[in-house]
Amino acid sequence: MTKRARHKVLLLVSEWCAPCRAAEAVWQKVAERREITFQVLDMAQPEARAVAQQHALRSVPAVVIDDKLMAVGVQTLNQALALVADAPERTVSAMRFVGITLAPSSRWALIASTLYLTVGGMPLVIEGTLHGESLSLPFLHLIGVGFVLFMIFGLSEHMLPRFTGQPIRMGILASTQQVFAHAGTVLLALGIGGAGRSASALGGALLVCALVAFAARILPLLRPRVAHR
User: Between β-strands 95-96 and 168-169, what pairing exists: parallel, antiparallel or unpaired?
Assistant: First the structure.
């Protein structure tokens, strides 16, 4: 039996190109259906400029498959699938290739980060001072843990997959990570504010679980990529 091809698909885009987001949405669907290696390259990256120069590209979006320029512009889903027609069907997977468009998980993490900064910062601004530790510490915790942690979550799961060209696990694990982080942040703040050590201990444990889930998703991206011949 002949082994079906696993194509390497590069989508060249620009952050300022409106049609590029539509092209990325199409190819994200293709990557969900077919066993392909999919990478979005922004023209701001040296790698993208090198590919563009190699193929004498003058416009984006452009699709390069296995080092061959296959299409320029936005394809329909059927047209894109036809370009990788011999690629095998992808089994159900939570893995996602990341491009210039924020994944829902990243978007929610960044929204949460902003909310924690607002909720934690406004009372300190209104109070105008950091004296009165019983009042200040829980709000400082919302900034130091809630704002910082969710900002790291959102940026890491968007930037690392994008620049390594490797997919990141989304789905249930990503949702569980954020639920644990939210619950842990709130419980730890309540414990610091006077709810007791049990709330702080449970909050801390949930935050550790969230960090373990985050590490399980991020660490595979940091492994060196093995070149396929």
Answer: antiparallel
